[in-house]
Amino acid sequence: MGARLTQALPYVILLTVAAWLWSIANGVEYDARPDALGPAFWPKAALVLIGAMSVFQIARTLMSSSDDEAVGIAAGLEEEEDDAPRRPLLLALGVGLTIIYALTLDTLGFPVATAAFLIAFMYVGGARNHVAIWASSLIGVAVTALLLMRVVYVSLPRGVAPFSGVSDFITSF
Amino acid sequence: MIEIFAQLGDGFIACLHPTTMLMLLLGIVVGLLVGVLPGLTLVMGVVLFLPFTYKMQVTDAIVLLSAMYVSGTYGGAFTSILFRIPGEPIHVPLLWDGYAMARNGQPARALGWTLVAALVGGLLSAVAMVMLTKSVASFALRFSSPEYFAILVFGLTSVIALGSGSLANAVIGLALGLLIASVGTDPIYGAARFTFDMPIFADGIEFLVVMVGAYGVGEVLSRLERGFSSKPLATISSTKTELPSLAEVGQVKAMLLRSTVVGHIIGIIPGAGATVAAFVAYGLESQFGRRRAQMGSGVVEGIVAPQSAATASVGGALIPLLALGIPGSGATAVILGAFMLHGIQPGPQIMMTSSAMVYTIFASIFIGIAMMCVLGYFAIRPLVKILDFPEAIVSAFVMLFCFVGALAIRSNVTDLWLMIGFGALGYLFERYKFPIAPLVLGVILGPLAEESFMNSMISFSNDWTVFFTRPIAGTVMALAILTLSLPIIGLIRNRRKPSGPPSAPQLSSVGGAERVLTPEA
């Protein structure tokens, strides 16, 4: 039963979020026109679909007679796809690095933050060839930054001093 | 007809422009590399290159992405045949006969047959694409908003019905996509929906943020959790291509034509991309082919059928994209996104307003297929050498492309945060087996579907029956209902059958195979 509850949990969350969004959709303000569907009609239709499918999946998971049917084809396929064990720590490190990157981007600027991210991500991912890691990261970021900031003029965060000096150096080419 | 040939000729001349040729070559090379790398799917590759097309001419941008799409259906064949590593789900059928032929001491011959299949299938499908697109577009000029809505419903239901995983999860993914697309200012009333008082939400959520996050970041996080488990190759074995003789090709011409037609038709159906085409073509050969008893033991039919169908699906998928504005596959959904980023809405009008661009794209498909085969013939060794790159390094650069994709849209770090959020959603979708394609198509097609639905309701005084009583809309709606009911009927039939152990290449049930192998290309 515990496995079934775990299986049903995503749909319970979806149902809760759908109910919350429905209440927000009810509060959409607009100038009502007679006999016209309002702006909340379309998102509400999507929410009805989400809610109905979630209820269906919850019912199927909790009430089905066989475990195979309860967990659906997903669980059966999972074992076939990749036999490497899941490593939540690696995932947490990867997510953490991505969040740190977004937090520091405005301060460090695109070139410095991205190079630091790439190097750290490669080590977290298990690469150990130091020359390849550092060379590919630094060259890759320099080329990308030069291409975007100097050639196609995409406005990327330059960072604050002293880190902005790196962006200035790249764009000075 | 003469007019079509004249415009196609102009398209070939336009393709010879150095920038266009460069984009074509770049697209072919990158598509082949994406096809070779197991961690990088064809759709993800096209998505990651989309931000780099912002400042390009729209024709060059579409030529680049279409070239990637074409060659992505071929690159993975090398590694499937030589190393038993399918770079794409498309090439799983090649594991059976392609790898078996290689193990029988004929890897060069297997590669040669793959090349011929991709060349013939791709070119024949491109011819059909040129012939049919204008007719389909002319027919679509009769459409008004109910017909458009019906077509969009058909496209979305096909994606749900033919996608991977459970039907309910696919519907949830689609509805989430529609919901995300509704964020921002409503186009009819000007009302703010789900903006949470954040100015950036008033402009809506860019579909590129969703695509890059869900496909790119989500996939990288999923593979990181497994420790990037694919191992680099120790040695690159004998890699050369031995083309079959014309007489040998003549012996399988009927099967080659049949598989090409199958691939082309499957490409036209929204939601069924190259993977479904490859599996259906292989399934048909293993059920009805002349050498069906030998399928799986390294026969030519097992290589030619899936490869020709996969490449032929590209020409088919481009027809609904250009003529109706409805993507036939995940990759064409991204190409539709590229059109929209440049302010062009593909559809019936495009053949009249931008016919020069359309025929340049057509011509680029012909040149691209030829170029792809030449590169595949001469540059196979360096192409498969990329498998020596550690996956951690390749994935780090995928993340870099994702960041660039998010930052380049509005130069706003909030988009980066949104992309990370959608990356987390993409990871959860992978983890809990929700298909991503319906989510992305919901985000892209949601605004079009809402607009045509609301316009229909305004024009026909909220009369719902208009979608069923008008001849074209009613027929398309009936097709949509039929498409949606097919997997349900299949499920009921499967439950009635006595259960037994499944065999390896179990392709008698096409639906079963495609659901296992995530057809999103």
From TrEMBL, chain A:
<feature type="domain" description="DUF1468">
    <location>
        <begin position="13"/>
        <end position="157"/>
    </location>
</feature>
<feature type="transmembrane region" description="Helical">
    <location>
        <begin position="131"/>
        <end position="153"/>
    </location>
</feature>
<feature type="transmembrane region" description="Helical">
    <location>
        <begin position="89"/>
        <end position="119"/>
    </location>
</feature>
<keyword id="KW-0812">Transmembrane</keyword>
<keyword id="KW-0472">Membrane</keyword>
<feature type="transmembrane region" description="Helical">
    <location>
        <begin position="40"/>
        <end position="59"/>
    </location>
</feature>
<feature type="transmembrane region" description="Helical">
    <location>
        <begin position="9"/>
        <end position="28"/>
    </location>
</feature>
<protein>
    <recommendedName>
        <fullName>DUF1468 domain-containing protein</fullName>
    </recommendedName>
</protein>
<keyword id="KW-1133">Transmembrane helix</keyword>
<dbReference type="Pfam" id="PF07331">
    <property type="entry name" value="TctB"/>
</dbReference>
<dbReference type="InterPro" id="IPR009936">
    <property type="entry name" value="DUF1468"/>
</dbReference>
From TrEMBL, chain B:
<keyword id="KW-1133">Transmembrane helix</keyword>
<feature type="transmembrane region" description="Helical">
    <location>
        <begin position="149"/>
        <end position="180"/>
    </location>
</feature>
<dbReference type="InterPro" id="IPR002823">
    <property type="entry name" value="DUF112_TM"/>
</dbReference>
<feature type="transmembrane region" description="Helical">
    <location>
        <begin position="469"/>
        <end position="492"/>
    </location>
</feature>
<feature type="region of interest" description="Disordered">
    <location>
        <begin position="496"/>
        <end position="521"/>
    </location>
</feature>
<feature type="transmembrane region" description="Helical">
    <location>
        <begin position="317"/>
        <end position="344"/>
    </location>
</feature>
<feature type="transmembrane region" description="Helical">
    <location>
        <begin position="356"/>
        <end position="380"/>
    </location>
</feature>
<feature type="transmembrane region" description="Helical">
    <location>
        <begin position="261"/>
        <end position="284"/>
    </location>
</feature>
<feature type="transmembrane region" description="Helical">
    <location>
        <begin position="110"/>
        <end position="137"/>
    </location>
</feature>
<keyword id="KW-0812">Transmembrane</keyword>
<feature type="transmembrane region" description="Helical">
    <location>
        <begin position="62"/>
        <end position="85"/>
    </location>
</feature>
<protein>
    <submittedName>
        <fullName>Putative tricarboxylic transport membrane protein</fullName>
    </submittedName>
</protein>
<feature type="transmembrane region" description="Helical">
    <location>
        <begin position="392"/>
        <end position="411"/>
    </location>
</feature>
<dbReference type="Pfam" id="PF01970">
    <property type="entry name" value="TctA"/>
</dbReference>
<feature type="transmembrane region" description="Helical">
    <location>
        <begin position="22"/>
        <end position="50"/>
    </location>
</feature>
<feature type="domain" description="DUF112">
    <location>
        <begin position="21"/>
        <end position="441"/>
    </location>
</feature>
<keyword id="KW-0472">Membrane</keyword>
